[in-house]
Write a structure and sequence with these properties.
The protein has five helices and no strands. By secondary structure, the chain is mainly alpha-helical. Helix 4 (about 65-90) runs antiparallel to helix 5 (about 95-115). The N and C termini lie close together (about 10 Å).
Length: about 120
């Protein structure tokens, strides 16, 4: 495992842990944005839980690589879903940048995990 993979995995874990906890706590800036995209409160809770689990999976994946790979795949798929919600809602690129950055970041960590597999 390279130091780059460890650092980027830890940063990805922190990003998704923060995003997931915000959704689970129903933090106002988060819920307002998601409701504007057509995401129901139940789906927000599900996404928040999956983001927290994905974050933990990426962290644990530093020791159990198959779990890290699966968690990163899950996070990539979730961000693809997020982008689909942004596109369907005709959201601006400015409002969609977070999902795009997290998609790229998740994809990078996934590729690093696969290269060292």
């Amino acid at each position: 495992m390279t130091i780059t993979t460890i650092i980027l995995s830890a940063l990805l874990m922190l990003a998704f842990l923060g995003a997931g906890v915000g959704k689970l706590r129903r933090a106002e800036p988060v819920t307002g944005t998601l409701e504007g995209l057509g995401v129901t409160p139940g789906l927000q809770q599900l996404v928040g839980a999956l983001e927290v689990l994905g974050a933990l999976g990426v962290l644990i994946g530093l020791w159990l690589q198959p779990l890290g790979i699966l968690a990163a795949v899950g996070l990539v798929l979730m961000m693809i879903g997020a982008i689909i919600f942004h596109v369907r809602a005709h959201d601006t690129v400015k409002n969609s940048v977070g999902a795009l950055v997290l998609l790229a970041f998740s994809g990078l960590v996934l590729s690093l995990q696969l290269v060292i597999a």
